[in-house]
Amino acid sequence: MSLELQHVRVMRGSFSLEADFSLQSGKVLVILGPSGCGKTTLLRAIAGLERIQRGQIILDGVRIDRLPTEKRHIGFVFQDLALFEQMRVKDNIGYSLKVHHEDKQQIQEKTALLARRFKIEHLLNRYPSELSGGERQRVAFARSLASSPSLMLLDEPLSALDAPLRREMRRFIRLQLAEGHLTAIHVTHDVEEAVDLADEIIVMRDGAVVGYGTMEELEQRPASGWLARFMNLGLVLPVTNIVAGRASDTLEVETHAGTVLSIPNRASLDISRLSKDKTCLYVPLAATD
Length: 289
Prior knowledge:
Helix content: 25-40%
CATH class of the largest domain: Alpha Beta
Strand content: 25-35%
Radius of gyration: 22 Å
Structural class: alpha/beta
Oligomer: single chain
């Protein structure tokens, strides 16, 4: 395993977050959830920007939760990108190398290499204020990779882009992560973005992990009616009664409105999590074809 979070708890005033999961080397994990659920707080805790009250964070076999941020070998792309506006692009990319006192020639060579990789050679002498949204994204990504991190953390870096550019940058990020065999955690509230980027998905709600698995696993067996609705995985219906249908391969479902539906009996049932006093029927989109 490349990354392990063991019984981690983060407290922020009255807000409490708990997480326990692992991520294999070279995989992309997407943390998905609505605003305020704790996605960014969890990312900041892994990076050392947020103190944990309990648990351990282990990266490549080394416990890092007691290490300062700069010694965790983690690259971070912030939601607002956090480019240094007073520095040229080449100095933004090489900043972490300079902080670690690398040789000037090495800094220049690594900066040039990353600029070629991200197709931003022509931007090296510009300032961030002179760049487009997509160009700023590429610079931020290049900067985060300059120190060859063991783990990449991306905190909703595409949220400020319009839809066409967001789709283009998703393809770009996925390609860069795959070609570099990088281990990464990407945070988003966008289900389409999660599906495009993720090898595995964690769904969070109110500081808790409420779903974890591949897209196929979540679709086949979502942990709750809320999760199925949030990810638009299929139909989620409050029901009063479920009986065998007249045809041998169907079920008849009665809703609170008194409507009776006939559905394939291969549909999955979730009767535990919609609420304490309601039964929920979950029908995957594949079962409605």
